[in-house]
Structures are given as structure tokens and as C-alpha cells.
Amino acid sequence: MSGEPTAVGEYRPSERRLAREAYRRGRARRSALIATVSTVATAVVLYLVVVNSPGWERTRETFFSWHYASLAFPEILKGLRVNLELMLVCGALILVLGLLLAIARTLRGPVFLPVRLLATVYVDFFLGLPMIICLLIMITGVPALRLTGVTTDPLVLGGAGLVLTYSAYVAEVFRAGIQSVHPSQRAAARSLGLTNAQAMRYVVLPQAVRRVVPPLLNNFVSLQKDTGLVSIGGVVDAVYAAKIVTSQSFNYTPYLVAGLVFIALTLPLTRLTDWMTARMNRRQQQGGAV
Q1: pLDDT digits (tens, 9 = 90+) for 208-239
Q2: C-alpha 152, offset from chain centre
Q3: Which run of H or E residues covers position 5?
């Protein structure tokens, strides 16, 4: 309901609108209060269950030692640099290879059948192959071949394993985005005189990439965590640094510290993904461009 104009032309909300807004503020305060009480009560219950468990004292000494946490933290931070470098380098390669695979799988025409088949076999194989087995094959199997000119560095081979596996995941994300673009978009581009490659480059891909940004970010959150798996080859990353300190003290607190460090790195990217997903949902509900 519109407000009532004053003598000097200033806007003044109506009584009904003021009452409605007051009611909404009251509901919001009530919801916030209930959520806070519920959260605190749940936290207290969980805390009491854990600290009153029979093995709590032993668990506290083994996993929550401040002494070993302060001892391991600097070493874990040194190793974390390896994880960050792996994520950045592998992430760039995964984007390129995943996009090429997605385009190969969406090529039209019988002449491209071999390309489509090869891309499909690649994606199916690495989607089904467990990550840990892929890394073991790359880190231990490739050096066993003794190929001339091929590196035996476990860091490089582990990174290659990550690229091979994650490019299959990312290829499927890109393919879903390409197929979500309505065929009329491509037809309109062709009617304007663009070739198939130009229609893909200037019309389809920009829309497809914009639509798959949230799932791509989810994949990179997973990649950030899985960089710790290269430690199976002896690479001194954050996880392996925690393992070294643990092997010297037989206290598992360094593993907990490494886990918390990874969580701290992952949280900003996770929240960014949530924000972008909510933003796209709002745009879709408003009927705007995605």
C-alpha cells in the first residue's frame, strides 16, 4: 500500500505498512533467537558427549596436544606451499584439458566419430578409476618403465595423476554446460554467417562457462584437498610433514593440525561457491540472463 504524502511532499509509510514491517522484524528476531539457542544447545550436548566418553582423556592426549601442535605447525606450513603450487598448476592444466575433452565429446558429424570415441573412453576410464590407484600407477609404475627422458619425480608424476583424473570430472561439467545452451543459439549464430567453430567460440562457450562456474569451483575445492594424496610418493607436503612429526612422537595432533589448515584454505572457496550459486538462482527466478 502506498504511503501518505505530507505537506512538504515527504514520503511517509502508511500505518499498515509500518505494522507489516514491524511484524517481519519480530519474526526475524524470533527466528534468530531460536537458531542461536538451538545451535548453542547442540554444541553443548556434543561437547558433553565427547568429554564424558570413556576414552576422552587418552584421545585428548593423543589428538589435542598443544605442545605437538605448536611443534608441527611451522613444518606443516612449509609443506603447504607444495599443495598450493600443485593446486594452481594442476588447476590451470585441468581447465584446459577438461575444456578440450568436452568440446571433443560434443563435436558433430561422422568424421569426428574417432575423436568422440577417444574422448569418451578417456572420460569413462578416469571417472571410474579410484584416485589413489591412479596416483600409485603414476608414481610407482611410470618410473618402473625406465623410459628415456621421462621424469621420475613423484611430485611431477603425482601432479600428472591429479590432472588426468580431474580433467575427466571437469570435462563432464563443461559438457553439461555446453549441452544446456539451447540449440536455437547455435542456429542463430550460423544464420548470421558464423562457422561452427565461431558459433562455439563466441556464442555457446561464453554461456556454458558462465553456467558451470559453481560446479567448477566445487571441483577445485576437492582438488585442493586431494593434493595431499601425493604424499604417498614421499613428497613432503603438509600431510607428509605432519606424518614426519607424528612418527617421531607417536602423537597424532599434527594430522589434526594439517586437517584444520586444509579446512581453513577450503572455507573461502566453499563460501564463494555458495554465493555464486545463490546469485545464479536469484537471477533465474527473476528471469534474467544466467
Answers
A1: 888 888 888 889 889 988 898 988 888 888 88
A2: 29
A3: strand 4-5
